[in-house]
Design goal:
This protein is an alpha+beta fold and 262 residues long. The chain has helices spanning 3-19, 103-116, 143-165, 184-195, 197-202, 242-245, and strands at residues 28-30, 47-49, 87-92, 118-119, 122-129, 133-140, 177-180. The strands form two sheets. A five-stranded antiparallel β-sheet has the order 4-5-6-3-7. It has a two-stranded antiparallel sheet with strand order 1-2. A hairpin with a 3-residue loop joins strand 5 and strand 6.
């Protein structure tokens, strides 16, 4: 092999090692070659800064999207409930469904209440059926018992309502809302809100008398003393907590024309 040919091969090897082997990965990449230095013609190579995009972190629009037109009940772990404290539960149905206050649909809701009033560690004590939501006052043995009881009630209601309407799919929009009632005054306010909820929606002056689609017809805590007999077909159970039996009465019985606070 001639000396000139050996020199050419050696030069090619040097050029390959110099320009073809990639440099270690860094936050900045040089252009057009990995190593910086003076190129032919005297131009100085410049490094180009690359803006890396990482997943996660605080970003606009990140996170769980709301259910429906607005955010529903937060999907956080519920606090545990003491069996001595009644719970006010609200269940809302999806938009586009008929009003639950229709006679046929209200009858289906009441039949589900009769079956589920004392099941899975929960007792249904008071209720109110409104056009697109339900208000319940229940007594539970804890967070797990409340979740199981409300899930069972939701399944019963969905099956009955879907069969009647002729549709399929979920009936309730989101998780149910639950609030523990820890004091006699809280219990009285919750009773007034649930039993007189028709006055809250229709107006105090337009809604007259007791709402027939609530447990007010079985309630013995009105000042006028009128209450129907809670027989075998009654859709509510007898209360067992002190707050619901005795405690709230210390703040006075409910007036028959008394409306809930807005």
């Amino acid at each position: 092999m001639h000396v000139a040919e050996r020199k050419r091969i050696s030069a090619d090897s040097i050029m390959a090692r110099r320009f073809c082997i990639p440099a270690p990965c860094r936050c900045a990449v040089s252009a057009p070659y990995p190593r910086a230095g003076r190129a032919r013609g005297g131009d100085m190579r410049k490094q180009l800064e690359l803006a890396f995009r990482f997943r996660g972190g605080a970003r606009k629009g990140a996170g769980r999207k709301p259910v429906g037109a607005k955010a529903g009940v937060p999907h956080a772990r519920r606090p545990d409930f003491n069996r001595r404290h009644p719970v006010h539960v609200t269940m809302k149905i999806r938009q586009g469904l008929p009003s639950l206050r229709q006679r046929a649909l209200a009858g289906l809701v009441l039949s589900a209440f009769r079956v589920a009033k004392q099941r899975l560690g929960a007792r249904l004590v008071q209720y109110s059926i409104q056009s697109n939501h339900l208000h319940l006052i229940v007594e539970v043995n804890g967070r797990t018992a409340l979740s199981r009881a409300m899930q069972g009630l939701a399944v019963r209601l969905a099956r009955r309502l879907n069969t009647r309407i002729g549709r399929r799919g979920s009936v309730f929009t989101d998780r149910f809302h639950a609030r523990a009632l820890r004091t006699p005054l809280e219990v009285r306010r919750a009773l007034l809100y649930v039993l007189q909820n028709h006055r809250h929606h229709a107006g105090v002056h337009r809604a007259a008398g007791v709402d027939r689609l609530s447990s007010a017809i079985y309630f013995d805590g009105f000042a006028d003393g009128k209450a129907a007999h809670a027989g075998r077909n009654c859709p509510v159970a007898q209360s067992s907590t002190w707050l619901l039996r005795i405690g709230w009465r210390r703040h006075g019985l409910l007036g028959p024309r008394e409306g809930p606070a807005s």
